[in-house]
Amino acid sequence: MRPLGELEAAIMDVLWRTREPMRVREVLEQLNQRRNLAYTTVMTVLDNLHRKDWVRRDVDGRAYRYRPATSREEAAARALRDVLDSTGDPESVLLHFAKSVSPSESEVLRRALRKRPGKR
Question: What residues contact 58, with CB distance under 8 A and at least 6 apart?
């Protein structure tokens, strides 16, 4: 997945906060509580997000309903993976990250590593 621009991220936030697939007009109404966007702008960005595999869409009459292709958490994990893969030294990145985590986050990581398949 390619990274998101500012408006793409705002649209994904709207989609992640709802449980039901949304039409362009519904996304626009949510976004326009804080800004003033045109319908065609939101429609174009949703089409771009579909092309980038960030959203899925289903036909509903003469319109589409959009929903996230992955959860917010899965997208964040994928972004972290991309960062690790793009550096020449993923071990160093992980060590710097480990220094920044809270005790509760550290415990979550420990539990996840213990549950990891193939662990000896």
Answer: 21, 64, 65, 67
Is residue 1 a part of any domain in this protein?
no
Q: pTM here?
A: 0.81
Give yes or no: residues 80 and 49 share one domain: no
Same domain, 59 and 27: yes
Give the bridge partners for 59, in sequence order.
64
The token pair at 8 is 């793409």
Please name the residues in contact with 63: beta carbons below 8 A apart, sequence gap of 6 or more: 23, 24
Q: Give me the domain span that covers residue 83.
A: 72-115
Long-range CB contacts (< 8 A, 24+ apart) of 17-23? 20/67, 21/57, 21/58, 21/60, 21/65, 21/66, 21/67, 22/65, 22/66, 22/67, 23/60, 23/63, 23/64, 23/65, 23/66
Given a cut of 60, is residue 9 above it in pLDDT?
yes
Taking only Cα atoms into account, the Rg of the chain, rounded to an integer number of angstroms, comes to: 18
